[in-house]
Amino acid sequence: MDATTVTAAGADAGSALVERDLLVQRTLFSGPRRWVNDDLYSRIVRGVVRRTRAELHLDAGAVVDTNTYFGRFEASYWQRWTSVTSLTVRVAVESEGRLDVLVRASDIGAHVRTVDVFHHQGDGMAVLHVPVDTFVDGGAMWLEFHAVDAAATVSEVTWSATTTSPARRAAVAICTFNRADDCAATVDSLASDPLVAELIDDLYVTDQGTDLVETREAFRHAAGEFGDRLHYLRQPNLGGAGGFSRGMFEATAPGSPGPVDVLLMDDDVRVEPETVLRLFAFAAVTREPMLVGAQMLYLFNPDYLLVSAERTQLDQLKGGLDADEFALRDESVVDHRQERRIDAEYNAWWSCLVPGEAVERVGLPMPYFFQWDDIEYGLRCRQAGMPTCTLQGAAVWHADFYWKDGDDFGQFFSQRNSLASAAIRQGIDPRAMAKNLGRSVLRALVGMQYGLAATRMRGIEAFLDGPEGPHGVGDGGQAALAAIRAERAGYPETAKLAVDALPAGIKVERKVGIPREDREDQVLAKRLLVQKLGRQRRGVVAIPYEDAAWWHVSLFDEVYVTDASQTGVHHRKVDPRRAAELQKRLGSLMARFVREAPEAQERWRAAQARLTTRENWARLYGE
């Protein structure tokens, strides 16, 4: 990542400042795999052009620019968060004529200007120097190539900065549970790019499953490339929290060389290796230690961005919200550019870099097992003075959330952990929160999702029982996982059935109209009364997943709802006895919540310092 030229820049109080040339970004012209749209990297504006990963071949008269998702240098983020004030752009050129290289820039309003131009003749290296000084609120820079009078080949395009920031150790931490093929492919992707593989000092792969990653040929190939820098770890299944924490635990062990940055990465992402380079480079020059996250592009729709950056609303137990009204969400980043800088509150751990200083200052993540571990840690760091930047132009491809059904065991962890996080980080108003929790459970009940209602209530109970309760975090979540799965097995609508379970000739019922937000509680009360009186529409119907809103499903007494994965269906049927039992249980639980939430909140707050220590995590790992 660093150039080999190192010079002494001066001395301050007897210590020399050492300048080094830091590679912050490469310009690549096509994706790492054939399924990736090359227009994410470069745009053919005019003429005949052939694009490869590292080279651009232009016929005479052709014009190409890199005003694209991966092609831009996101100057606004670099000016806001790093010490970089200028860049050197280098372009290797082969041509018998003239090639013009332009550095172009945008601002917050997407107005375009030219920053620098190099008229290059023949073969050689075009070098341009550009300031990073007018982008605080938004804007980016990119390159434009004009083959003026002859064919030209462009390659080895780099953006670099001179810095005196000390070099940092680069570690990657991946955790997996029985996704051996996916994890092996992810590790092998890191090994596939020699420059990226070289900059990774340590790669920790924590395997918590029984289908072992080390048995895969792709993993063995990567292991050969990384050698003793790859650390393959086995431990009990402690979920994502336990797997990611293990990488942080190892990378920041006492006596380890530092400073260190630890890039957490899901096992099932498809990696753009350039993203890894950009995250480590950015973190190397931030003014203060901070978390640096990658964005998420959809795996099934590779041109589409999940969201520019995310925030929470803790009083509603909501995460994943747009960080800014101008954030892009579910948009094609081939067709749209994010010109405004969008500041994140936290970054999900599909790919997020955590500086070692964070572990020193606030400890390791909470042993949540699954859900909200990344949110809580991001908020904890933020409150300790270490914000998060979700870096535009750095992304991995991850399975679309739209394809994941929300009625699963994860709802328990989401409910318990979101309550614990809200209690620790902000505080809970028991009565207001009880109203929100009750509404959430009742919506599941009228939708005939009795298992979901029970799962959510179990999560609320676990919060009230505290971190050391029977469904707490004392064992890292293993007992809770087993108990919730066993309980859910008693609710038939939680089971996914094959598509042939749909009766022949069944009618499809799509939702019509959406209740006004200020009337949703009235609609909920009406649906509950209609079900109690048995006045729903009779006869079984099919409802597509996108139409399965609670206020629509609850109009019927028996439905087949498509699973979000589109691989099966769920059979839901009104069960008055079970509905009455669960509603009675909910009433008692909400009364208990109002009484006991303040005390539970204090127990979670008091326990956090102990739960996030190296000693507690070592115990969970079985060290």
TrEMBL record:
Start and end residues of each Galactofuranosyltransferase-2 C-terminal domain: 435-622
Location of the Galactofuranosyltransferase GlfT2 N-terminal domain: 49-161
Top-level taxon of the source organism: Bacteria
Alphabetical list of SUPFAM superfamilies matching this protein: Nucleotide-diphospho-sugar transferases
Keyword Glycosyltransferase carried by entry: yes
This protein's pathway: Cell wall biogenesis; cell wall polysaccharide biosynthesis
Cited InterPro entries: GlfT2_C, GlfT2_N, Nucleotide-diphossugar_trans
GO molecular function: glycosyltransferase activity
Family according to the record: Belongs to the glycosyltransferase 2 family.
Protein name, UniProt field: Glycosyl transferase
Organism listed in the record: Dietzia psychralcaliphila
